[in-house]
Structure formats: structure tokens, C-alpha cells
Amino acid sequence: IEEERVGRIEAALPEPPWERESRYRAWGLPPDVADFLAFAPGAGLLDRIVSEAGAPPLLAGTALVHGAKALARKGVDPKALDADRWVALFRACQAGRFGREAIPKLLEPLARDPDLAVEAALDRAGLSPLADAELERIVAEAVSAHGGDPMHTPTEENRRKRLMGHVMEEVHGRRGGREVWEVFKKRWEAERREG
After folding, report:
1. 20 to 30 A from 121, CA-CA: which of 93, 132, 147, 157?
2. Distance CA 131, CA 172 (A)
3. Rounded to whole angstroms, how far apart are CA atoms 194 and 28?
4. How far is it, in rounded angstroms, from Cα 56 to Cα 24?
5. How far apart are alpha carbons 49 and 151 in whole angstroms?
6. What is the pTM of this model?
7. Backbone torsion region of residue 172, taken as left when φ is above 0, otherwise alpha when ψ lies between -120 and 50, otherwise beta
């Protein structure tokens, strides 16, 4: 066999699972997630989501593994959610169409209906876009309505966490947690300066 042919064959071989696992661990994936994805039949899906949708590897990897397991526990075949719709889901998330907290809510309807588009799943789940003004109103109402609630351990940190819980419940996954936190933090600091 000619060396040139051997070189072409070697170049066309897929990445070995042990190298993929090492790369996934370097990305910060937990060992169980990295191990599972490195040896899974659709191992390249995480790479595709990261490269095409720009999703953080940790978010995409944990959603792929834990989301698939959650679907299987509900009796839903995780393989029914094809690679293109996984990518579309993360594209929408990265575009700010919904918060990462809503990913688990969207997986089941997408897996149950192979013809359901991501946008239709978002509409069906009530994940309409949340305007900045509406988010600021939700934060302001939570701070004014619950900012002085009695607490067992009323530390500043505990109060912020409790208020963020109220806000996130109201936001319902329509915006990402980091965005909500930034709006909340500004409002909280303004309230502290005024009070």
C-alpha cells in the first residue's frame, strides 16, 4: 500500500473517542458528560452545536446528556429530536429568543413531534419574547412587593436570592438568567442607595 494512500485514509478517519473525551474535558464538561458524548453514536453533535450555534460547550453538553436521559425517563425517544433541531434550539437560545432555563421545557415537545419547528415549540410553551421594559417592570414589582418580606435569615445575599427567585418565576424562561440578573442588580442597587 502506498504511503500517500495510507495518509489519505488516516486523514479521513474520525477523531478517536479518547481524544474527543480529552477535548471535552478541556472544555470544562463534567466527566460523566464528556465520557458519554465521546463514545456516543452521534458524538459530533456537540461539536456541531458549538460551532454552528455558538453555544457554550458546558450548556450544550449537559443539555444533550441530561436532557436525553430526562426524555427517556418520560418514555420519549431522545433520538426523535434530530441534530438539525438541536442546532436550531441552541441558535434560538444564543440569539436571546429564550433563556437557557427553558431548554428542558422545550425538549419534550420537540422530541414528541418530529415536524415541530423550534419557533412553534417556543410559541406553544408560551415563551414569547420579553421586552426590556417588561423585564424592568417585573423586577421593579418584585423588589417593591417582596423586598421587605420577613425572612428567617435576612442577609443581603439571601434577600437577593429570594427576590431573583420571584423574578425568574415571573420571567418563565423568556430571558436568560444573566440578563435578568443585570437588570435586577441595577434595580437592587438603586433601591439601596435611595433607602
Report:
1. 132
2. 13
3. 41
4. 12
5. 43
6. 0.71
7. left
